[in-house]
Amino acid sequence: MVLLGPGRFLRTLLLELADDAPLGPGVLQPGGFVFSRLVPAPLGAMKRELAATVEAARRRYGREPDTVWIWYLTCAACSRPRNFETLFLAHYRDGSSAGGS
Hints:
- The chain is an alpha+beta fold.
- It has a domain at 2-6 and 30-92.
- 16% of the residues lie in helices and 28% in strands.
- The strands form two sheets. Strands 3-5-4 form a three-stranded antiparallel beta sheet, covered by helices on one side.
- The longest helix is centred in the middle third of the chain and has 16 residues, at 46-61.
- The radius of gyration is 15 Å and the shape is globular.
């Protein structure tokens, strides 16, 4: 799984590794928890869906997420038939979920 973080030209990547993968220098484990939304998000809707994810996460947990990650679930060939499926993850570094349920 490759998740794209914030940034216009230089983006942080979050990679899912197998449990037995060696963790070397520069590899961080983010921990915490996420609020997620799976929505149709063609390029023109990306900014709106990002803002909606941040707002929904803020309402649920009472604070802004530490970062938001985006995972495009479709390739260029199948995006339209699969309705531009995109996963938005609002990441919170620590385990406290004030206001959450």
